Amino acid sequence: MGVVVLVTGVARHLGARFVAEVRRRPGVDLVVGVDVQPPRLPPEEPAGPAAPAAPYRFHQLDLRRPALSRVLAEHRVDTVVHLSVSATGLGSTNRSAVKESNVIGTMQLLGACQKAPGVRRLVVKSTTGVYGSAPRDPAVFSERMQPKDPPGGGFAKDAAEVEGYVRGFARRRPDVAVTVLRFANIVGPDADTPLSEYFALPVLPTVLGYDPRLQFVHEDDAVAVLCRAADEPAPGTVNTGTFNVAGEGVLLLSQCARRLGRPTLPLLLPAVSWMAVLARQTRLVDVSPEQLRLLTHGRVVDTARLRDTFGYRPAFGTPEAFADFAAAQGPGLLPPERLAAVTDRLTALLGPEGAAPAGPAAGPDAVPNRPRPPRS
């Protein structure tokens, strides 16, 4: 019998895409989907007789309930891919309900896996948000670094707690190959994350005096990394442990705005915080305090282990991933071409040093103005 993969969080876009892809993988005999709500769309069926799809079964259940043990035993699951740790809840905006789903749901899942002798591999989707975002952070975070200012709440804290429980599970079940993937912000044409909602605003509120560095990972790369983690490692690679997942390179928030054609509205931090609270209350966009810190201080992670140990180099760098995301968005108030032309014109006027060049009457031998000596 081949591999039986259980996937949580299949009602979300990333979970549905992963299910459609893993069903095409050789050696997979069955894929079992679990979520509190049924998926909006059924998983994609591979086209043509040359690409047979593994059967798919869906179970609508809440991970906080103990029914998962029965599902693991019924299907003889040997690989579990946990994708339901999320910043937002399905059908609920209550923060306590989201936290319970993330943390309590993961605890119940790990308890069920611990009792299931057939489970041999566990993959957990986490986030680079576990490093936090603070003004004194290092320029680049590696997997072994501890945050100077750990996240005090929200999705990032949930993910940090989940990782703690996963480490405990790995100690209790050393026979299980455990992989934790810390994803940067996932973008793409169909991305459905809180940050993509922020970038969809017609005007982007920003914190005055800050231009944070951001990293992104394309949804295609995210699915490819998950598939590699759920499979046996390729020769010369190791796919167990903790890995940062992000596209190479960085973008400033101002560069993201220009690529989208969105004007920015720089405000003092208290004003932006007030607007974020108002946006959450009116359900316009979910800008959490942790996301506001990201949009203030930024975050960059090192992906050397992903390339050298895990054996995967993302097909999309951060600029390319964001460009694909931007191409799927509606036109902004400021066309990117016009915005780039204005920026280039200002750069030419100010010169490379940021100072205005000499006037037309000043030749190459002109003597710059010097301050006059004070009169005696």
Helix and strand layout, with pairings?
Elements: E1 3-8, H1 13-22, E2 28-35, E3 56-60, H2 68-75, E4 79-82, H3 95-115, E5 121-127, H4 154-172, E6 177-183, E7 185-187, H5 194-199, E8 204-207, E9 213-214, E10 216-218, H6 219-230, E11 241-245, E12 251-252, H7 253-260, E13 264-267, H8 269-281, H9 289-297, H10 304-308, H11 318-327, H12 336-350
Parallel strand pairs: 1-2, 1-4, 2-3, 4-5, 5-6, 6-11, 7-10, 8-13
Antiparallel strand pairs: 9-12
Helix pairs in contact: 1-6, 3-4
Strand share of the residues? 15-25%
> What's the tally of helices?
12
Cα-based radius of gyration, to the nearest Å: 24 Å
Q: Report the order of strands and helices.
A: EHEEHEHEHEEHEEEHEEHEHHHHH
Structure class: alpha/beta
Oligomer: single chain
Assign an overall shape.
globular
Report, as a whole number of angstroms, the end-to-end distance: 99 Å
Helical fraction equals 25-40%
Mean pLDDT metric: 86
Low-confidence stretches: 352-376
Across the major sheet, the strand order is: 3-2-1-4-5-6-11
Q: How many runs of DSSP E, i.e. beta strands?
A: 13
**Tell me about the biggest sheet?**
7 strands, parallel
